[in-house]
Every structure is written in structure tokens, then in C-alpha cells.
Write a structure and sequence with these properties.
- The relative contact order is 0.04.
- The protein has one domain.
- It is built from four helices and no strands.
- 74% of the residues lie in helices and 0% in strands.
- By secondary structure, the chain is mainly alpha-helical.
- α3 packs across α4.
Length: 100
């Protein structure tokens, strides 16, 4: 606190009430309250993060729609998908799972 008083005394002749008002207003506007600079920066980072997530999920949606259209296109592709993904077999078949 002593340093602030010394600084104020040193530059008191250069400051007037208008400069002090402007400085207090700037501090209150940019560093105190609901919309501070630090919060603005963190919100911008969150926005960029969420936009990248939106882009990722849009690509995943396109991939899944392509798979769905391929499966719906014919009975053979549906059967192939069921056999590969869910290990389904016909009644008289045996299934061997080979792990590497």
C-alpha cells in the first residue's frame, strides 16, 4: 500500500480528476464485473472447442449415414453387417473366433 501512495504522490501534479475518473472507469469496465477480459478469453476458448466438437460429430454423422445407406441397399449387405458386427450365424453353422 505504501508503494501506491508513493506513486500517487510522485505523479499527483500530472494527474487531475478527469484522468483518475477515466482510469477507475477503465478498471471497473475491463477487470470487474460479469464481462471481464479474462472471462471473454475463456468463453472464446470454449466456443472454439465446441465448434471443433460440432465439426467432429458432423463428420461422424456423415460416416454413419453412409454405412446405414449401404446396409439398407440390399439384403446381402445387411446379412454381412450382422455377421461381422454381431457374430450372427445361420441355424446349422458354427462360428470360430480367431484372436491375434
Amino acid at each position: 500500500m505504501k508503494n501506491w501512495v508513493e506513486i500517487f504522490e510522485k505523479y499527483r501534479h500530472k494527474m487531475n480528476k478527469y484522468w483518475i475518473t477515466v482510469i477507475i472507469f477503465a478498471v471497473l469496465t475491463f477487470f470487474v464485473g460479469d464481462s471481464t477480459i479474462l472471462r471473454r478469453i475463456s468463453y472464446n476458448q470454449q466456443i472454439k472447442s465446441l465448434e471443433s466438437e460440432i465439426e467432429y460429430y458432423a463428420k461422424e454423422k456423415e460416416k454413419n449415414l453412409e454405412k446405414l445407406n449401404a446396409i439398407k441397399s440390399s439384403e446381402e449387405s445387411l446379412e454381412k453387417y450382422a455377421r461381422e458386427q454381431y457374430l450372427m450365424t445361420k441355424p446349422n453353422e458354427e462360428l470360430f473366433i480367431i484372436t491375434e
